[in-house]
Protein 1
Amino acid sequence: MLINEVQEYLNIEDVNKYFGETKVLHGLTLHIKQGEFVAIVGRSGCGKSTLLRLIAGLETPTNGSIKMQGEELCGINKKIRVLFQEARLLPWKRVIDNVKLGMQKENTSIAKQVIHDVGLEEHNDKWPDILSGGQQQRVALARALVAEPEVLLLDEPLGALDALTRIEMQQLIEKLWLAKKFTAILVTHDVSEAVALASRVIFIDHGKIAMDIAIQLSRPRHRNNDFTYYEKKILDQIMGNAESVIEDTKKLEYAI
Amino acid sequence: MLLLKKSYVLNKIIPWIIPAILLLFWQVATSDGLVSNKILPQPIKVIDIFIKLISNGELIRYIGASTQRAFSGFIIGGGIGFLLGLANGLSRTSAQFLDASIQMIRNIPHLALIPLLILWFGIGEEIKLVLVSLGVFFPIYLNTFHGIRRIDTRLIEMGKVYGLHGAALFWNIILPGSLSSILVGVRYGLGIMWLTLIVAETVAANSGIGYMAMNAREFMQMDVIVLSILVYALLGKLSDSIACYLERKWLKWQTEKL
């Protein structure tokens, strides 16, 4: 270990990821402190989901290393849980049994407590298919949190929900993060969502980090002027990159 | 509430109206001489012989022998089909080696193999067991294999992330996920089981419904022949009902919503 090497809770060092010939992540280096809420934004295909899947252990880096508390992450780790874009509940288990799936040792009272935390206590014995999209994601959230994970990875979990449910879910996630103090990494294409939830926003562009900005807003977050300041700053960076691409390729011509 | 009861009763009665009319027509046609009793016996005669054979215990013995034969073949053929379906569904290597050969054998109608099987196994119990097993094997193999391949891989990925591996992954996700397909295979298998049994029992038998029917044919006992057909039909319906019951019990998450 080099003396000047930064050692935080979660260390992603010089990670490259190839899918066949395509290089998706270019020497990505990222250090995340324990208990931080990090949002990763970027356009589709920029590599943000890939990075999350590397941390989750669903893929392995082609080069580089990912370490948690000094130890290399190999494959799936018990202390890390994922919330996917779809709820991915098992249709043949009732809500309470789906939540218990996340537990090493099954404990009905703890499971019921977590279901209560997400506001679904009346639905313990229902089949998942009859719940709405937002309710299903809340069950998935309960399942993710029931084993008290140290890290929660969120892979665009609110993308399929309607706008109002999305805001409710953001408030719920913030509330639970403040209470349980896990490290959260949220991948989203929605900058507004990133500013609403994260203490730090990372913009990934073509597999590299293009921006790393701390969000200094009090919690709970309100959509006021300060909020918009951060939103605009990040969006300008994202769209700014896109603008320069468009300018290079298109020449405006006027007939008059 | 009275109205509710009335429609419930009606729903139970209506499906039986046409069969009742047909039964009546059958009785009238055969007793009036419209249809010769040598071609089709009267329903009353069939009921008579049914009561006679029940009370002297013969029918129960025949049914017992046939059922035992049928379900032994089902367990053997279905068991092997299920295990191979599992193996080929879960392991690409296994499928690469075995599936093509199994598909080739499947295309041979198993009943057409009877002359060959008689040469190999004679005309005792073994050939009947082999025939039924062979018939039942394919629907159960296919549907098990298909059921496992069709499972949503996103659910399996979720299972792995949540710490399910090996046996836990199998019992929590893979088996329940393919159960619907497997039960379809079971229902098909049950139908083929009875079909094959009927044919197998005509090859040669010294017990069972087929034996009863063949004897009746020797002595032109039309009523017994018709009875044997009805008994086969009843057994088929009963086993199908068992399969339906299993479906309702094990697939509650699908059936309770409907």
Protein 2
Amino acid sequence: MKDTEFLEDTKITKCVQCGKCSASCPAGRNSRLLTRKIIMEAKSGMDVVGREELWLCTTCFLCFERCPKGVNTVDAIIELRNRAVMEGKFPEVHVGAIEGIYDTGSGLPLSPDGIRDRSMLGLEKEPEDIARNEEDFKNFQKLIKELGLLEKVGVER
Amino acid sequence: MKYAFFPGCIAKNVYPSIEKSTRMVFEKLKIDLVDYPYSCCPAPGVLGSYDQDTWLTLGARNISLSEADELGIVVICNGCYGTVHRVYDILDKDEEKKAMVNANLGKVGMDYKGTYRPIHFVDVMDSMKEEILKNKKSDLGLRVAIHYGCHYLRPKSDEATYNVEKPKVVEGIVELLGCESVEFKDKLSCCGAGGGVWSGAEELGIDILEEKVQNILDVGDVDCIVNICPFCHMHIDSTQKKSQFKADTVPTLHLNQLLGMAFGMKDKHLGLHTHRVSTRDVVKAVKKAGKEKK
């Protein structure tokens, strides 16, 4: 049996397998993601942490809003993803985005096209954000390092 | 009225047309926007999925920046809202998490109080209908498909009053601008970009968007999709131009661009020409509607 205490706040034990979550799911209609099944298996103590389909949820929260038992399906998936990261079972594809946030402060950094469009529209070439404020940026990077995220995903800085 | 302005990464870096339109529209409505050294919100789908403590701490850092000036944040993106609004809600109810966040922020001389609930710009516009009408130059005469996206509506927080299955707030705003809002299948479903799917499962993101656009095309004669989120905007606009995309294309406008058009601002100033899917027919239709009125 797998420890499922970390899912307690999401109330998965209340699930009655009605399937409203999967019936509402835009990702499930187009992929192998079956939220109903993930919740059932997690509830029964199966180890679902390594399941690749956990990463197909768009976190749209339709399932959560429609669940008649108040199960927080999306937070359960997010908790399972967090656990997968702790166990080193995460998709490499997002590591670049995490590096980008650390290196630039932005999830999607300023590109040459962005600079061109900003100038053309009469905005300042570079936005007035964290990247332009040295002290804030240093503290931001320090925070990320202290929180241990880079280590978890094997990024050295 | 004055807000701390949180434009978010995409409106700043990828679709500056949305940042520009927002600044113009807010100025017209006499709402001051103040800039702060914000980082990424951080992205709920990616950062939140990897490490909740990092997500909460960096989100709280952003919210805390304007607290000393007694200003709350206004966001123009559902993704940013899905972080700052949710982080606010979580820390409001969970003292343990708030203590964790403050222990971390303390290391860089910062502190999170949680005194101002972040607000979505749609709620600001909803509260300013009279001013919007006063500033309207002409009816736009467009048939629009409203795309709410996800995190403005969901998860619904305790204090929200809208009907989560039948919201009417954006409809109320576009109708004020002389637009007709059409109903379509699965109107409230996701564009397909969130949760890390845009970057991590591209084909799935395309499939979900195709379904959405097809449902809109099935209604017939829709001039454009109106969105309230630069991330949805980017996915709808850019992904439709990808070679794998099979449906016909529909242009999309951020609600602040639509407001700008109704206020008589030039489409080039609103950056409509920087979109990937051509907005030329939308601009033409608006000009035609304006002339017919005269």
